[in-house]
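Quiz preparation item.
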């Protein structure tokens, strides 16, 4: 499947669908081992983390629960505004629970720093972060991430949940979006 032609708006496939799936399975195995005997709650950040989280959950051999939060930070732009607003809060109570926050990508770190502080205030018994992608940029906000899928260059990417103006989330690979698409 990895030799399927890329979408015409994609400049380059950065991580093939096969490579994504293989790494997600590795992360699932690592998480299964480190939470052995426990029942973590996975909290996905809508909407970007949904595709990753549903694959990750199926790669974890533990009695996991799933919950979601939604935040808005970017609008339709490709650069972080630094403003984080919660538009959907958790359904579950996380006090005393092992929480694994699942994100699509860490860029400036502003979103995750905010969410980590927000969730810490609810007294989980543990809180760790798992991100599929980590952009190699100068972080504006210092945030510790326990599980990372891939380090990627500082380019705007889409696919496997990541969007530009709500599009491309269903591409099975991670690709660099052509600058002409967003007028860059
Ligand atoms: P941060 O707060 O700057 O770390 O940004 C994190 C959020 O920005 C991610 O959860 C994504 O929704 C979005 N984002 C950052 N970089 C990209 C990208 O290259 N493609 C798509 N979305 C991105
Ligand atoms: Mg996101």
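Solution:
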């Amino acid at each position: 499947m990895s030799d399927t032609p890329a979408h015409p708006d994609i400049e380059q496939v950065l991580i093939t669908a096969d490579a994504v799936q293989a790494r997600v399975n590795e992360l699932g195995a690592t998480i299964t081992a480190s939470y052995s005997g426990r029942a973590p709650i996975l909290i996905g950040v809508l909407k970007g983390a949904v595709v990753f989280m549903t694959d990750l959950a199926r790669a974890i051999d533990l009695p996991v629960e799933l919950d979601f939060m939604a935040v808005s930070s970017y609008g339709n732009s490709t650069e972080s505004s630094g403003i984080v607003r919660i538009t959907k809060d958790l359904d579950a109570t996380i006090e005393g629970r092992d929480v694994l926050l699942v994100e699509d990508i860490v860029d400036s770190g502003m979103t995750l720093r905010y969410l980590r502080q927000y969730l810490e205030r609810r007294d989980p018994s543990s809180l760790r972060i798992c991100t599929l992608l980590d952009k190699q940029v100068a972080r504006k906000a210092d945030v510790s991430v326990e599980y990372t899928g891939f380090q990627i260059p500082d380019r705007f990417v889409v696919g496997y949940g990541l969007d530009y103006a709500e599009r491309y989330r269903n591409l099975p690979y991670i690709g660099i979006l052509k600058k002409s698409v967003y007028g860059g």
